[in-house]
Amino acid sequence: MATYVYETIPQTPDEKPERFEIQQSMKDDALTAHPENGKPVKRVISGGYGFSVSGSAPAPAPQHGCCGGSCGCSH
């Protein structure tokens, strides 16, 4: 199950959007209404956290800021 972030779509200029998270299968259609109050919603695209494997060693830090020295730069 994936966790998705949704935001209500304000219906008036003074209404603030409300964000919430919900777990859904990747096969499920995106929600169009808030599951509790029925307000219209849109899915918020976010960067996410990537993958983390338990027990794996962190990647070595590059020696140079741009490429770790593999490009032949003179940093």
Written overview of the protein:
The chain is mostly beta strands and 75 residues long. It is 0% helix and 23% strand. The protein has strands at residues 2-8, 19-24, 41-44. The radius of gyration is 21 Å and the shape is elongated. The chain starts with a strand and ends in a 31-residue tail after the last strand. The model has no long low-confidence stretch (mean pLDDT 81).
Q: Uncertain runs with pLDDT below 50, 5 residues or more? A: none
Total helical elements: 0
User: Given the helix and strand composition, which structural class is it?
Assistant: mainly beta
Instruction: Report the mean per-residue pLDDT as an integer.
Output: 81
Q: Tell me roughly what share of residues is in helical segments.
A: under 10%
How is this structure best summarized?
With 75 residues, this protein is mostly beta strands. Helix content is 0%, strand content 23%. It has strands spanning 2-8, 19-24, 41-44.
